[in-house]
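I hope you will forgive my troubling you with a question about protein structure. I should value your view on which stretches of the chain appear to form regular backbone elements. Here, with my thanks, is the record as I have it:
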Amino acid sequence: MLNDKVAVIYGGAGSLGAGVAQAYVQAGARVFLAGRTESTLHKVAAAIDAEYDVLDARDEAAVEAHAASVVERAGRIDISLNLVPRGDFQGVPLTEMSVEDYTRPVVQGIACQFITARAAARRMTAQGSGVILSLDSASANGSPMMGGTAAADAATDALIRQLAQEIGPAGVRVCGIWTAGVTDTLTPEKLAAAGAPAMDEAAVQGVRDHLDSMRMTKRSPRIADIAALATFLASDAGCTITGTWINATAGMFPS
C-alpha cells in the first residue's frame, strides 16, 4: 500500500511509533524515525529495517533542517506522523491541579504538532502531494480526570482541520486518529509518568480491563489496529479522507 512512499515518524521509538513504523515498512515505505533517545531509536530501526535521526521535535530549526535532510536523502516526504509525548498529567481533579500540570500538555503538544506539521506541509505543498497524520485520545469530547489532555486534544483537533483546509488545494491531506487509549502501550512506568499511583502489572491489567469495559465493542484498540489504520490513511486508498478525525475509540466516544 505504501510502495515508494517516504515516511517520517516523530516519537518513532515508542511502542506505538514502532508498531506503525513496522507496518509502514511492511507496506513498502522507506521510514525515518525521529526522537531524542538514540539507544531506543537504534533498537527499533534495526529491528524493522528503518532509518533514524536523533532530534527534538520541539526545536523548530532542528525539525526544519531534518525535513530538508530527509528530502535530500530520499527525494521527498510523503507521510508525516507525530507521536511525541506531551507531558500529560491525569487523575487529579481540575480544582486541585496546578496551572503548570494543566497547561504543559497543551503548550508542548500543540507547539510540537505545529512545528512538525508545518515542516511537512512546506515540502508536501511544493511536491503537490502528501499526508500529515496525528493521533490523540479524543478527550476533547469530554473526559473527567484527564487534566490538560482534553484541552491539548482539542487544540490538535483544530490544527488538523484548519491545516487540511489551507493545504488541501495543493494536493495534501491532513487527518487524525482518535484512540481513547491503546491498551497494549500501557505500562506501570507510563501510567506513573502521567500521574497515576505506583502500580504492578496486575493493577495495570485492571486499567486495561476497565478501558475495555467502556467501549461499545468491549475491546480497546491495540497497536496493530492503529498501525493498520495509519497505513490505510497514509495510502492512496485513503485519498478521499482529509480534514477530519477517524474515530478508532471502539465506541467510547460516539461520533
Summary: The radius of gyration is 17 Å. The chain has a mean pLDDT of 94.
